[in-house]
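Document type: protein sequence-to-structure record

Subject area: structural biology

Format: plain text, a pair of labelled lines:
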Amino acid sequence: MRVLVVGSGAREHALCWALAASPLLTKLWCAPGNPGIGTLAEAVPIGSLDIAAIVAFARANSVDLVVPGPEAPLVAGLADALGVAGIRCAGPVQAAARLEGEKSFAKEIALAAGIPTARFARFDDPAVARAYCRRQGAPLVVKADGLAAGKGVVVAATVTEAEAAVTAFMEDGRLGAAGRVVLIEECLAGPEVSLFALCDGEQAVPLGAATDYKRAGEGDQGPNTGGMGAVAPAPAFSPALMEIAFGRIVRPALAEIARRGAPFRGILFAGLMLTAEGPKLVEFNVRFGDPECEALLPLLASDLLAALFAACDGELGDFDLRWRAGASVAVVMAARGYPEAPEIGGEIRGLERAAAVPGVQIFHAATRPAGGRLRAAGGRVLTVTGIGADLGEARVRAYAAARAIDWPGGFYRRDIGGSPIL
């Protein structure tokens, strides 16, 4: 099998790492990749949103499967273009990718399918939105309707914070076109879980669940980020809750989107809140989460490549995924100043020492070589994943590796998976 992964972050590094272990694989590329991915796959200098170039490369190189990491290419129609060229894509067509591209569409699907979710209202007028915030009272959740790279959600503890988020998104243009329309939702209470399902248009099989840590600071303080760490399996998510979530959320969503003529194939990510009334939908995404991917894939014992092919070919009915016993803890190392203004360019040393810690995998997110040295090239720069017999062992290993990395310009949360670790 000849496979092309699309993307350049730690999620794509983890995907390449898992795919490279498949006995079915004969050639692996990644567009555009990063220095860590370059040890596993041949880098292709094509941007993840250059759909025409991705399709042309796949055709010219007889690619059997394209695996998109990020959501933006799918929302832009990558799967559709590959389908026209007769190439499998482990991701949904554009009409189904609206589940992530338009939060209001995801709510529409949820209401039509009877999926439990937070009460909400949609606004395209900022003055009307602010008035609604004042009528409802806090806490509230303000969400940009479009794609915002994980930065389009504000959990507002006060009405003033909610109004400020409306102004920033809708009038100040902080998120560009993504924030011109907002949703204002009730604030659900309970543990949050990232649930993943591998889908073939009709069938779905669990692809694991993880707990994601969104806030930049320890104790869940500070601004929302793309994710500062993850734990798998999700401690609060029992097998019974998994079956409830599949029955009330995942399968109804698949049935409704198929009824509308856009069967969902690929990875469906349901962000859930485990409320006192049971699991409720927070949002849908149409790809693996980051850093959840880096926590889940090291625990997958099945062949990821075979599973993705089965999803593309509508053959998940008899497919069963096997998982390794134990747990994983993924710790994101980010550049100081992230998420607002990360400091770029700092040198990173000690990766070989960190990688030598037993049970550790290090995934590159935003690194670049310069003058024979490795430097930070973005906000979230590395993900350090520890795998162990239990959560405690996984944490010890992840943090031992993180401490071994010499990067004065970076920081990481010390409480991923539990209380702060020194």
